[in-house]
C-alpha cells in the first residue's frame, strides 16, 4: 500500500471499532438512533463530496490508504447508531486526510441536545504533549492528591500514550504535526475523553507519579455539579427579576503592553479575525514607534488563524522585504460538486465566490492569481525595525503560520516555543463551507483551496522554532510561563 504506515492503519481500525463499540455499550440516555442503511448513505455522500472538492484529499495520505480507511468506516456501521457514535466514525475517517480545516461538527440543534449529557464527566483537566499528561485543573478543588502539576501515567489502567493516540485518531491536523492535536485535547480533555470512551463511569482509576517520584494509584469520582441547597433559595438570596445581572467583561482578543524599563512591547493576538483588528495594529505600531521600543514580543500561542488580510498587514509592519502570500493557491473546480440537497442553499454563496476569485490555469486547477503573483511591500510609516520574538505553540495555526512564513529567515526575528500546528509547507483553507449530511445531520468542514506557501519547503510538519521551549510538569506546578520567561531572559541578556 503506497504511503500507508502499517502501525497507523492498525491503530485507526482498532480505535474505530473500539470507539464505536464502547459508545454502543455506554449509551447516552435517550439519544436517537439512526438505521445503518441511512448512515452508510451518509458515508458515501461524505466520500463523494470530499473526493470531488477537497483540494488535498491525497496530499498526505495515498488514495489506496484512504480507500482502506473508508472501508473500515463502512464496516464500523453494523447496527443503528446514535449521532454521537456516528460522529466518531466520520471524525476518524476525516482525520486521515491530515487537514486541520477538515473536521466534523454537530448541527446547532444536535449541539443543544447533547449539551444536556455533559455530566457526569471526567473531572481532571490535563495538559497533554508527547507521551506526557499533567494535571492543570481538578473540578474537585479540595483534592490534595491530584493537584496541579501531578503527572498522570494511566486512566482506568490504560497508559497515557495509547489512550492519547486513540483520541488523536479523531482529531484532524495539518500533515503529521501532533502539537495541534495536543493543544486541542488540552483545551477540552474531558470532552474529547467523552467522545472516545463515553462518560458513564462513576469512578476513574488514576495512576500518577507523586512528589517523591513514586508510582501510585488513586480513584476519583466522575464530576456532577452539586444541586443548590434549599437554604440558598431563601428570600434573602433570591435575586429580583427586576435586578439586572451584570455581564462579564468581554475577553480582549488583542492586547498591547509596553514595559518601558525593558524597552519591550508585548503584543498578544488570540485571533486574526474581528472588526477593529487593522485599527488596533496601526495604533499599536504608532505607540511602539512613539515609545522608542526596541523589542517586540508577539504571542500567537492561542491564535488559531483568521483573515489573511489581517495576518498580512502585521507581516508588512515587520518584514524587511517584499513578499507574496503563497506560491500556489488552487481549487479542484470552479463550483462545488456532489453537494447533497440538504446543503445546496447553504453553499451557493461559496460556489459564487469561487467563480469570482478563481481563474482556470494550464494545469486544470482554478487559481487565485492575486495571492500567487502580488507582492506586498513593507509598511513604511511606523515600521518596526527592532528585534521581534514570536511565541508559538501547537494552537498556532492557519493564518498564524501565514503571518510567520515570510519572516522565518529574517535576521531580527526569533521564533520561540514549540512546532506550530499549522503547516510549514502549506494548508487547505480560504473558503470553508459546512456540508450537512442528509440523514445524520452532521456537518463537516470542507476547505476549497490548497495553499502552498513555499514549494521549496518539506511537506508534513509545522514551523519549527529557532529556540525550542517545551512544556514541563515543574513549570505547570509553579504556574510559570516558561516560554515567555525564556524570551524575557533573552532580551535581558541582549540588553
Would you give an account of this structure?
With 495 residues, the protein is of the alpha+beta class. The protein folds into three domains: 6-106, Transcription Regulator spoIIAA, CATH 3.30.750; 124-221, Pdz3 Domain (Roll); 254-433 and 447-494, 2-enoyl-CoA Hydratase, Chain A, domain 1. Helices cover 34% and strands 19% of the residues. The chain contains 15 helices and 22 strands. A six-stranded mixed sheet has the order 10-11-12-16-17-22, with helices on both faces. The protein has a five-stranded antiparallel sheet with strand order 14-15-13-21-18. Strands 7-6-8-9 form a four-stranded antiparallel sheet. Helix 1 (6-25) runs antiparallel to helix 4 (83-95). The radius of gyration is 24 Å and the shape is globular. It starts with 5 loop residues before the first helix and ends with a helix. Residues 1-10 and 17-29 have low confidence and may be disordered.
Q: What is this structure, in a nutshell?
A:
The chain has 495 residues and is an alpha+beta fold.
